[in-house]
Amino acid sequence: MSVDPMIYETQFFGFTPQTCLLRVYIAFQDYLFEMMLVVEGVMLKKLDGIPGCKVSPSQIRKCTEKFLLFMKEHFDKLFAKMEEVLLQLVLNIPKNVLLPEDKVQEQYPYSKEEFEALQDELQQLQQQCRAEAALEQALRAELEEQKVVKAELEKILQCFDGLESICREHGASNFKESFAVLTQNCKKLQDVLKEVEEKSKKMKLHDQLM
């Protein structure tokens, strides 16, 4: 069996020529085995009808096997010649023949170096596309975060607007000054609260000692 991959022929036929010939060989061989079994059965029937025949079925089987081996050896030789002819003249595409789907290669021929350069360029473009897709995804995520922050800022601004309105209702025209005074008052309240907590602790300690 030929070991030539015959890639172009496989592209055209849709199967490897070697596979086709192997199936043909197996089909012929199976038919030969079946034929020998039929011949053996006929011989057994014929001999069984002859009075005084001393030929046993085991002897018939030995003769059948010898004849089968003889036929197989000759068949293999004939098939080897047939395989050579089929691979060269029937299942072979000449070197000067170009398949229709490969016509574009004739119009736009490329050398091996040019093809490898195109492959490298294609890989670079694929990497750039993946990087741009990742960047786009990151930008989308950042945009979503900005939307959330913007919504929170709008809530804070609404809160400040409310505070400013309250200050105006109570006669405070400058919200910044009012906010500063409010901050100072809060700090004073925190100091007073801290002083009260310390005194409370001292009084509890005094009561425990008494």
From TrEMBL:
Coiled coil residues, start to end: 108-206
PANTHER family from the UniProt entry: PROTEIN MIS12 HOMOLOG
Subcellular location as annotated: Chromosome, Centromere, Kinetochore
Record-linked InterPro entries: Centromere_Mis12
Protein family membership: Belongs to the mis12 family.
Protein name: Protein MIS12 homolog
Record keyword Cell cycle present: yes
Lineage top rank: taxon: Eukaryota
A single GO BP: kinetochore assembly
Cellular component, GO, one term: nucleus
Pfam families noted in UniProt: Mis12 (PF05859)
Entry keyword set: Cell cycle, Cell division, Centromere, Chromosome, Coiled coil, Kinetochore, Mitosis
Principal localisation: nucleus
Annotated source species: Cisticola juncidis
